[in-house]
Specification:
The protein is an alpha+beta fold. Helix content is 14%, strand content 32%. It has a single domain, classed as N-terminal domain of TfIIb (Single Sheet). β3 and β4 form a beta hairpin.
Length: 69
């Protein structure tokens, strides 16, 4: 979980939209293994997901994943 003050000021680098913190459990975590959930910041406006590694958001547009269905 990111610091709420940091999350309040972060914006999507592509469209300047608001980022929301999301976590998703990996399949291994669901089966009882000790692997933690994956944390990401998601922009609802442009449908991009930015990874958070060791508490550090990776806001490089080139490395963002599309989360459009």
């Amino acid at each position: 979980m990111l610091n709420p003050e940091l999350l309040a000021i972060l914006r999507c680098p592509k469209c300047r939209g608001v980022l929301q913190e999301r976590s998703s459990a990996s399949p291994a975590a669901k089966s009882g293994d000790a692997e933690p959930a994956t944390l990401a910041l998601v922009c609802a406006a442009c449908q991009l997901s930015y990874a958070v590694d060791d508490g550090i958001p990776n806001l490089l547009i080139e490395e963002a994943q599309s989360c459009a269905a």
